[in-house]
Fold this protein.
Amino acid sequence: AAVPAGVLALLLGTLLWAPWQALHGAPLVELSGDQDFQLFLHKNLEFTRKIKGDVAALQRVVCDIFQLCKEEELLLVRQDLGIVQVPLEQCHSRTFQAEACFSQIHDGLRAYHGSLAAVLELLPGHASLVETLQLDAANLSSNIQQQMEDLGLATVTYPTEGPGPLPTFSSSFHHQVGSFFILANFQRFLETAYRALRHLARL
């Protein structure tokens, strides 16, 4: 059975809270050889891939209904909307730090969970898919935390600021374009998170 998208989100969130090097006092390079940890990483990779597919499905819906399909055609409008990309620079920097990367993934999942409310308002006919994405983001964080506890890793909750308020769209067109960019940014975020998990799985 497919893993619910929410579970993936929960897993990612938990990863953020976990100080990876605390597990049995082992550095990450030793932890990477742990079979349970490897299984955890591979399950999360599948989860992330599933969520990416759901985001792509919503992007196709926005393209079909509103003819909003190409990002480069909408960049000027984007400047007026205040839609920003959630940072994940710790996940692709040359000085990759797993703990910092997972902290950013965790924070980002929380932010996108909130931002998807704008997409939900725009696409009431596809509410079940949007709500599944939101649930998946929440569940992924939870599952990751549980996995870290199962491995004997003390969980650390990093102080984070809650996601900011949703942008106020001045027109229905701006709402459409804003939702387009929320989905586009979320897809990029998930691609970076996926690469980070794959990197750890290959250590």
